[in-house]
Each structure stands twice: as structure tokens, then as C-alpha cells.
Amino acid sequence: MKITKEIRTGVLVMTGLVMTIFSFNYLKGINILDKSRYFLVVYDNVEGLVPSNPVTINGYKIGNVQKINFSDDGTNKLEIKLMIDNEVEFSKSSKAELYETGLIGGKAIAIIPNYEDSSIAVSGDYLLGTIKPGLTELVNQKLTPLQDKLESAIQNADKVMLNVNELLSDDTKTSLQQSIVNFKSISESLYETTGNLNSIILNNTNSIENSLKNIESSAENFNEITESVSDANLSDLILELNSTVSNFNLVLTKINSGNGSVSKLLDNDAIFNNLEKATAELEALINDVKANPSRYVHFSIFGKNTSKN
Fold this sequence. Notes:
A 7-stranded mixed barrel has the order 1-4-3-2-6-5-7.
């Protein structure tokens, strides 16, 4: 059988077409000769994820994204088809987390296994989709409170400026200007007073030095007096004082015990009664003298009267 030129051309065209399809899928990370498993994940927003983006587990690539389509439930959610190598196994409750691969914004999906679940995921299962906050989102989360505080500070500054403008009326400005002029005058007077004081000190330097010497001499004399008092023999004086106090205590003890004349005088009621009686008689005598002075006083202008009544 003779192969015609047309057949050979057709075979070459078919072979080239197959190689083109294989190469295109291979460059996209899809090996059409490999029997890989696929899994489905649903996201509200894929944030720049495109087919052929890698799928990793613990940072190691185990597959790639094959398709991105809208879900059939009419919610406009995105359904992602992941192609995973057969030798990698994980549980059905594992998560498929969408994350950024670097600062330039590349996207990838990381499988986060749940080792507590023993059920193994099979091809065609749905995995729970989560989104890890990217660098931009984290920066926005940090900057948003700062922006709110900055806006609040600006508003407060505006209020302060308005209050200051209201406070600084024409009368207030005039008062402030007058206060500045007065302060300047006070400063000039203080400067002049300081100059006069310096002049007085310079002109009376000798007097000040003599005064300081006198103060120093007085301090030395005071120190000598203090040392003299400190060196005085105070122990004898203290002993004599103690002896005097002891004697006084002894006298008081004797008086309290009833010994001696003083104690009898204080404790004898008869002496007090006699003294009280004598005082009463003396008071009666004085009253009688005031009432009948003729009984006690006899005098005559013409001499002594010898007649008897």
C-alpha cells in the first residue's frame, strides 16, 4: 500500500495539532497524560486568581488551578477547579485558603489539612474556601484606625482654631498688645535695676567683705562658746539637782505619813476649829466697835472727865 502525499500531510498536521494542545496545557501546568484528581472550591471573590496559579500544601506545590467559572446557583460566586497530584492525600474538612505569594500580588491556593479528620477527600469533593488577608488589606486594617484618629485630630484642631479666632477679638488683641508693651517696659526697668544693683555691689565691695568677715568672726566666737558649754562639768550640777529632788520627796513623804509639826498642823482639826472661832470673835468685836464706839473710846475737850455715871 502506497502512502500518498496527502495522507502524510494529514498525519503531520494532526501530530502538530496534538503537540500544540499538549504543549499549551503543559505550559498552563496541566498534564493531559496524568490522571490527577480534581477538587472544587467556591469563593465570593478570587482577587486576581487566574488558571495555572499554583496549589500548595505546607509551601510545596501539589497542583494548580485549572478552571474558574461562575457557580450554577445564580449567586455570582466563583467556582474554582483544582487539579491535585494523586499521591497527596488530605481530609474532606481541609481548607483551601487563597493567599498572596509575594509583594507583586501573585495569588495561590494553599491546602490546610485537618489532621483530626480521618475521612480522605476524593476527586470531585468540595473544599471549604477561605481567604487570607493580603499585605494591602493588612495595611488598610492598620491605617483605617489611624486615619480615623487623624481626621478626629484635624476636626479638633479646626474647633480650636475657631475658638481662638472668636477669642481674639479687637479688644483682646489691643489688650494683648498693651500687655506686650508693659512687659517690655518691665523688662527694661528690671535691666536698669540690675545694672544699679551691680554698681552698688561694685562700689561697696570692701564693706561687703568686712561684713562677711564680721559674720565669720561671730560664727567662730559662737563655736567657741558652744565648745565651752560643751566642756563644762554638768555632771555635778545634775547630781546636786537629783539630791535636791530626793530631799524634797523625803519631806513630802514625812508630811504624808503624819510626822512633824507641819503634818500635825495640816491634819489636826482642833487647831482649825480654834482658828475659825477666833476669827468669828474678832469679826464680832469689830462690828461692836463700829456700832458702839463710845464704849471703847473716851475723850473730852475740857479735860479728863472723872465723874462716874
